Amino acid sequence: MTLSTAIxxxxxxxxxIATAGTVLTRAGDRIADLTGLGEALIGGVLLxxxxxxxxxxxxxxxxxxxxxxxxxxxxxxxIAAQTVFLAVADLTYRRANLExxxxxxxxxxxxxxxxxMLTFVLLVVAGPDLTLWHIHPASVLLLLIYVLGTRLVAxxxxxxxxxxxxxxxxxxxEPDDDLEQVNKPLLFTRFLxxxxxxxxxxxxxxxxxxVIANQSGLSQSFVGALFxxxxxxxxxxxxxxxxxxxxxxTLAVANIIGGNSFDVLxxxxxxxxxxxGSIYHEVGNAEAFVLSLGILLAxxxxxxxxxxxxxxxxxxxxxxxxxxxLFLGGYIVLYFM
Length: 337
Known about the structure:
Pfam families: Na_Ca_ex
Protein name: Cation transporter
Domain Sodium/calcium exchanger membrane region: 6-148, 189-328
GO biological process, one term: intracellular calcium ion homeostasis
Mean pLDDT: 80
InterPro entries: K/Na/Ca-exchanger (IPR004481), NaCa_Exmemb (IPR004837), NCX_ion-bd_dom_sf (IPR044880)
Number of helices: 13
């Protein structure tokens, strides 16, 4: 495959992922209402995990093929890209700062869980190289942290011990009125088919990315951290913007933050697929830099969610503008590393 063909293929796959992501949004919002679990939990866990299928397929495929740098950077780069996508969604919501209007305890807890998981991975990268059947024990612990953290979020969602102050800009998570008319088998079929499309497209994104890295002269770390991570994260962008337009603000934020928490598990799955030892210790400064950038962006977003500024530049919060600036500055530095 030539470089130009690979680029067009990546763009085509990105468009396919974005289209499937639109269907996932509509179905996910309906499922949240039908099950009574709420937008925060469905968006953060179910929709966040499903929309991440393309990314996990990319990282696992790259790891299985022995491309550790591409696999790792795709995972952590996707977290950085999706945080920026939330800032973009904030710019599309004209009434007020999105993080102010979508105040939710579940989203705050998901943000804290994300920072805990990313920091844990950073500790593992800097720690000793340990493997058991070529898998680092940290991969199992990472899964355990996610499961226990998600259970805490679900428990807090049902019986909250803390609630945000509601203002006239706050948009509450309320179910639609026409749930009795919903064709449930068709709804879940669309959801599952869209999820399958996203997953299969992610597999081919990994294959195309290797071609781009080899023929463009760019490092696999940079290609993974920017190109494949953005392409495979398009469902989150589409879902968040579509959710904002539908008025499902809690779902928009939960999809990004919950999806980011699930994205950290890419590393555990990739470590299992990588046959040459611990994937955490195959990475270099570039991957550690993007990982640290992800922690910085998540912390900035979480601080903005707690501050709850009502209005800012272009009706976006200061955290959104800061996240965009840190992302652009970070990737300029990454290009020259």
